[in-house]
Amino acid sequence: MTRPISDLHVAVLMGGLSSERAVSLSSGKQCADALEGQVARVTRVDAGRDLAQVLAALKPDVVFNALHGDWGEDGCVQGILETLQIPYTHSGLLASAITMDKDKSKAVLRAAGINVPGGGLFDRHAVARGHVIAPPYIVKPNAEGSSVGVYRVLEGEVPVAAVGADDWAYGEQVMVEPFIPGKELAVTVIGEATGPRALTVTDITPVKGFYDYEAKYAAGGSIHKLPAELPPAVFETALRQSELAHTALGCRGISRSDFRYDDVKDDLVLLEVNTQPGMTPTSLAPEQAAFVGMDYKALVRWIVEDASCPR
Known about the structure:
The protein is α+β, with helices and mostly antiparallel strands. It folds into three domains: 5-90, Rossmann fold, CATH 3.40.50; 99-115 and 180-275, ATP-grasp fold, B domain (D-amino Acid Aminotransferase, Chain A, domain 1); 120-178, 2-Layer Sandwich (Dna Ligase, domain 1). The protein is 31% helix and 25% strand. The chain has ten helices and twelve strands. It has a five-stranded antiparallel sheet. A four-stranded antiparallel sheet has the order 4-7-5-6. A three-stranded parallel sheet has the order 2-1-3, sandwiched between helices. Helix 2 packs parallel to helix 3 (76-84). The two termini are 14 Å apart. The mean pLDDT is 93. Residues 106-305 form the ATP-grasp domain. InterPro entries: ATP-grasp (IPR011761), ATP_grasp_subdomain_1 (IPR013815), D-Ala_lig_Van_CS (IPR000291), D_ala_D_ala (IPR005905), Dala_Dala_lig_C (IPR011095), Dala_Dala_lig_N (IPR011127), PreATP-grasp_dom_sf (IPR016185).
């Protein structure tokens, strides 16, 4: 942005239509609160199907996109904002669309030389009937985040019947990947003018089970260790691979890469990249920013100042 941030009217999009609505409402509230007093005006928008009309009437200078999940994170809202020619935060249309699709983003990451999981897309009914790959494995929607609809199947367990149920709402194909034992890691990347900069590596330990929705967002659901205690070469590889993933997928602004590290086999695997990391009280990105000296208000301010819109 070329104008001083103190002169801006910022519309914060939150809520939305996806299964991650509750997380988005929390992220959006935190971001809007942080912007109060830093910008001329903050308007909180619960983004519905009438978003184009709402924004056309509001005429904000910048849109802070705090939506998570489909529609808000997959290129659809980005297309609306580009049509209206309103500068907006986070990644653009193409990067958002590719990154939200786990299968397509894995293809891009693999082509860039990044180690990603095996497995692939399978018909959900076939997955419900039998093991399409040998256990242990992970079953998850191809285009959801926040660990919504994710299941872990261990050796000796039966297939996931839920993915074949009539009320399954996450598409006819699901991603099935080998389960990678070891550490759950995350790296936040900030896309600076000189290139993407990885902040640090967090080691995440769920209090119980595995790193599912509750572990991510419930208070006390997981323990975050930063910087992660890793062999120096692994730590450095996680940073560099996160920056490479940010660039390969065409991300802008802030992103977060999620890894598993098998410390027995010394195998670091990038699971996926999130173009709109959570900004809730338990979220990893603001925690990592604080670790390197950027508090929550400063992070939100930087995200707004980084907003842009293709012409």
